[in-house]
Amino acid sequence: MKFVIIGGDAAGMSAASRAKRSRPEMEVIVLEQTEDVSYSACGMPYNIADADREMEDLVVRRADVFRQKQGIDLFTGYVVETIDRQNRTVSGTIGHNREPFRFVYDQLLIATGGVPSSPTCRDSICPASWP
Questions:
Q1: What domains appear along the chain, each with residue ranges and CATH number?
Q2: Rg of the Cα trace of the chain?
Q3: How far apart are alpha carbons 122 and 127 in whole angstroms?
Q4: Nearest to 99 by CA among 74, 81, 87
Q5: Rounded to the nearest 5 degrees, what angle is found at the Cα of 86, between the Cα atoms of 99 and 75?
């Protein structure tokens, strides 16, 4: 069983860790586009407010811990660009050289987070307090 997870922040690494605990024989692959995994996003306001505070303080667990102690195949610098559901593959490029990669999966989890958006206001549904 090959379980591929796209996204190596809190949700992705939690899912990977749980999968490995539940089924140690499962091959768990995490693809993260940055070099950072498992950092405390909740602590960011403290770092922003205090210029002397190190960003390194936000790191909860280093990538090597997931690789060595938990047996998770964690790949950083991997940008997933295509998901082929029919052939059960994910592909994209690695780092600045943009070398191509491709992984086959049995199960796939997309844990990339989201992008906030502001609601649009149309005249017919705008509350009176909205500009």
A1: 2-110 (3.50.50.60)
A2: 19
A3: 10
A4: 81
A5: 35
Q: What is the mean pLDDT of the chain?
A: 82
Please give the C-alpha separations between residue 6 and each of 31, 54, 89, 111, 126, in angstroms, as whole numbers: 5, 28, 12, 6, 37
Place 96 in a pLDDT band, splitting at 50, 70 and 90.
confident
Q: Can you tell me the mean pLDDT for 74-103? A: 95
Closest CA to 63 of 48, 53, 73: 73
Burial of 76 (0-12, 13-18, 19+ CB in 10 A): middle
The two three-digit tokens of residue 26, written as one number: 């499962």
Tokens of 68: 């060595």
Share of the chain above pLDDT 70, in %: 68
What was the pLDDT predicted at 86?
A: 97
Q: Please say whether the beta carbons of 45 and 100 come within 8 A.
A: no
Mean pLDDT of 15-31: 95
**Measured in Å, how far apart are the chain's first and last C-alpha atoms?**
53
Q: Which residues are catalytic?
A: 42
